[in-house]
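Here is one chain, start to finish.
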Amino acid sequence: MDINWTLALVAASWAIILGGAGGLLTDIGEWYRNLNKPSWQPPDWLFGPAWTLILGLSGWSLYLAVSGAQTSSDVMFIGTLFGINFILHFAWSPLFFKIKRPDWALFENVFLWLSVLSLCLFLPSYSTLAGWLNVPYICWVSFALLLNLEIVRRNRPFGDASAP
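Its structure:
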């Protein structure tokens, strides 16, 4: 099998940019530490390695799906799925950590979840493995959605003008 290095670079860049941006936009500061979080929340140090693995697998799925595409419209469709996912994945951390609106992040998280589900459902048409490589992603985003929901439930309301 010949490796398409341009495609490999695009797929790796997709994962590296998302992972790096998520890390840079995540502020584990006083505001976050003071949130009432459930006992079942993983330790903060776990999120970086988990996202690195998950996004690496998803980037690999991008490579496999595009490699298995038969037409340019297939490649465009796959690119659109990953482009939408990129935007939605990228948007969550600023909503939660920078704007300090877990409620908005929760709303956005539903659309992120749907975008990951679309990867799981549509990519097997191009590569069975590509679909399976996104199962950890949808599992983690499902867990993150529940965690986000619980944080909102325990800490609302958000956006109070008198809050620091």
